[in-house]
Each structure stands twice: as structure tokens, then as C-alpha cells.
Amino acid sequence: MLEIEGVDAFYGDLQALWAISLHVDEGELVALIGPNGAGKTTTLHVISGLLPPRSGSIRFRDRDLTRERPDRIVAMGISQVPEGGRVFTGMSVLENLELGAFLPAARRCKAESLKRVFSIFPRLEERKNQRAGTLSGGERQMLAIARALMSRPTLLLLDEPSFGLAPLLVEQMFAMITEINAQGVTILLVEQNVRAALELSHRAYVIENGRIVGEGSGTGLLSFESVRRAYLG
Amino acid sequence: MLVPLAQNVVSGILVGALYGLAAVGLSLTFGVTKFLNVAHGELLMLGGYASFWAFTTLGIDPFLTLPSTVVFMVLIGTLLYKLLFSRMVKLTEDVKVKNTMLIAFGLSLILQNVALRLWTADDRSITTSYSGVALSVLGVRLPVVRLASLVVAFVCLMALHLFLQRTYTGKAIRATVEDWAAATLVGIDIHRVYLESFILGALLAGVAGALVSVGYSIVPTMGLEWTLIALIVMVLGGLGSIMGTFVGGIILGVTQSVTSYFAGGTYREVVGLLIFLLVLVFRPQGLFGTKQG
């Protein structure tokens, strides 16, 4: 479904990604794990078109999106939940969701999408007229995911969805992610909560210093010696 | 003593509404694009002349020509954006502010001189059959033309408010103001939003200019004064609040008018700049703006 081949990316003169290659198949939940600053978020930005790669290629369902505009990439069915959610705090919950369905194709089935996200996140329906800035951290994160779902993506990119949440909420969050995946949305998940991410995902990649250094099934990597040592203690 | 003072306050409110209208356009464009369009006053001048010539050559009532002025400004706005400003989109914010300011400054000189060449340096004003008519309330004169201009300005701002609150395009504009990266991630085409907000800014300037040409007078070199006014009011009202900016305009109008009553016309402009400095020092988010991170 998504194939990344030898991608190099730079912030100015600083190289952030070195020949990254990875693939995500239809229906999978793939985790991308690694320490802070390893290039996890950068990888997602490259896929979403926020940071065009200097070389290499990104293909999605046999279409090349290497230098495509971010809004076109969303239109192709790839939606990203950025780090921290970044909901529009000055707008209501409902407006945030409406903006998620901004593109014409998504706008046509807005009512149906709303029903769907409210069934996954009932809390958002209770708060739909509230300003997003008044939501708690967990609710904002839910809103960010719901907003991304409103564009009816086939591939969802999640950047640290559990970051900053209380332990109980983290568990709920992962349960919701599993449910969204079970509904047929392919997911690429960036997580610092390594154990949970590996338990939940079908496959995982380990990224360090901008390079992919390991790949395997989620539970397989759990027993991977260097992963155990580096992340699980 | 009381009646002349009241007269000055009322005159200040009437002109202040136009200040507000001019400033909202500048503020909207700046809020979305971070383009500091110091040629905003020249756009206002162009709108004024569009209305003036429509009246003089075709004899159409200045309030009826507003729609055609709007169309004209949409064309001008699109042209200027595509030719000059679209290249600035990719720059980082601080570079963008500086570069667009320089470009707009050059643009203002060009527009001024072209206007001087085409239309001479004469003051022009639209004189309709009802131009001299004024209502009198407790001895205070209310010229109907200026009163109508106040209503038009207010209606424009209400329309803008509804547009930003209710329509998808308006919501995309607000989303871009809040967080442009998050806006792109929901599929909003930033370039389009930039173009739309630039056009909206030009259009509001044009309408303000048209109203100035009926109630007051226009001249090719009026732009700088109006850009300054719009900047002062934008800072006074604070970014992101339409009504705040409108009220900011009225505050400036009244202050100027009352100052020139007590201290003479020479201090009109000084007081505006003084307000500008005071607000920047003591309340940089503006009187009605929210603190920005």
C-alpha cells in the first residue's frame, strides 16, 4: 500500500533521514519506534508532504507522491495526526471535525463520517459545541484522531497519540487505535511507548539516527535484544 | 462648547468607521499570510478612483457602484498576488514580513505615480444630489452620506464575520490563522487560502476607498496616510477580532477629531502615532486581541 524507497531528507543542510525504506501493507498496523530525534516525526512529515525528500521515492497504491502537495496527499487517502494533536483550539469541536472533512469527497459524506467518529469517541459528541481549547489533553488527542478520520483516510499516520496522557487514558487510546484498525484503516504508528506499540502492532520498524536499524513482527521485536536493552530496560 | 464637542465626537465616529474598515482588511491579510502589505492604502486609493470614475463617466450612484468596485478590487488583488506576493509564501515568517513590506513599499510608489500620471494630483470627490443633505440632532449635524457610509462599513464587517464563521472557506481561513501546518494536514490548500485572504483584504480596502470618495475626498498620494491609519488601528484593535478592529477605528477617529478640536489640526496625526506607541508598549496584543503564543 505504502512503499518508501531510499528516502533522504534534510532540514536545510542537516540530513535527518538516511536512505529510509519501509512499507505498510493494506490493513496492517505498523509501528515505527526509536529514541527522541531519531527521525520518526520527520518520516511522517515526508509522507504527508510537509517536508519533500531530497532523493528516494514514496509510492502509495501505485501512485507516486514524492513531491506531491500536502492537500493532494490527504485527498489520496493519507491523513496524519500530528504530534500533540494540534487541534484548532479557537474553534468548536464540531468545527474541527468539519474541517477534517474539508476536501470535496469527504464533505459529501460528512454526516456519515460524523456518526462514525462519534460512535468511536462518544465523549466528543457530548462536547461538540465546546471550544476545542477547553478540552482536556486526552479529549484533544481524541479530537485530533477524529478530525483525521473525517477525511476518510485509508492510511492513518499517528504521531505519538499517547504522549502526555494519564496511564488509564493511554490504555483507552490504544484500544481505540486497535478498533480503528479493525474497521479497515491501515495505520502507521509512531510511539515512544515502545512496549504497548509493539504489543499492538503487526510489524514494527526501529529507527535510530535517521536510519532504519531493525524490522520485525511486533512481538518478535519485543524479544529483540537491543530493543529490550534500549527501550524496555 | 458642548455642541461643538459633540459634533467632533460624531464626526470622529463617522470617519472612524472607515478607519476600521480599512484596518480589518489589512489585519485579515496579515493574520493569514503574514504579508505586511504597506500598499494597503494604495489599494484603498484605487477603490476610491474606481468608484469616482464610475460616477463621473457613467453617472451611477456611488453606493450602487460598490459591487462593481468590489469586482474591480478582486481582479486587482488577484493580479498583485499572482505577480508579486505568491512567491513569498514559502519564506519563514520573519523574512516574509520584511520582504513583503519591501515589495509592497515599491508597489505603493508605483501605484501612486501611475495614479498621479493618469488622474493628476487634484483632490477629487463624488458630489451627488444628496451630498449636502444632513440630519440635525440636538444641533449636531449628521451628513447622510457619511451616515450611510457608516452603515455600509458596519454591514461589510458583519458580512465578513458571518463569512468567516459560517462558510467552509471562512473556516479554512480561520484554521490557517491558528495553525497553518495543521490546516494543510486536513487537506486545506494554503496557497488558495492565502490568495483568498489577500483578495478579501484588497476588497475591503477598495470599499473603504469608495466610501472615502463619497464622504470625503481622494487624491493619488492618500495611500501612505491610510496605511498608517490601518496599521495603528490594527495594533489598537488587536489581531483576530473584527469587531475589536472596528471599535479601534472608531476610537482613533474620535481621538483625532477631539484632539484637533482642543489642540488644533496639526496634532491629529501625532495623537494616532502616540496611541500606536502606547498600545505597543503597554498592551501589545491590542485592546481586544487575545494573547498569542
- Quaternary organisation: heterodimer
Hey, roughly how much beta strand do the residues of chain A contain? 25-35%
Query: Termini distance of chain A?
Result: 34 Å
Q: Label the structural class of chain B.
A: mainly alpha
Helix content of chain B: over 70%
Number of domains of chain B: 1
CATH topology of the largest domain in chain A: Rossmann fold
> Which word captures the global form of chain A?
globular
**Count of individual helical segments of chain B:** 11
List the helices and strands and how they pair.
The complex is a heterodimer of chains A (233) and B (293).
Chain A lengths: L1 E10 L2 E11 L4 E5 L6 H9 L6 E6 L2 E2 L5 H7 L1 E4 L11 H8 L3 H5 L1 H11 L1 H5 L10 H13 L5 E5 L7 H16 L3 E6 L2 H7 L2 E6 L2 E7 H5 L2 H8 L1
Parallel strand pairs in A: 3-8, 3-9, 6-7, 7-8
Antiparallel strand pairs in A: 1-2, 1-4, 4-5, 9-10
Chain B lengths: L1 H32 L6 H19 L7 H20 L7 H27 L14 E4 L2 E4 H23 L1 H11 L1 H6 L4 H26 L7 H15 L4 H22 L4 H15 L11
Helix pairs in contact in B: 1-5, 1-8, 1-9, 1-10, 2-3, 2-4, 2-8, 2-9, 3-8, 5-6, 5-8, 6-8, 9-10, 9-11, 10-11
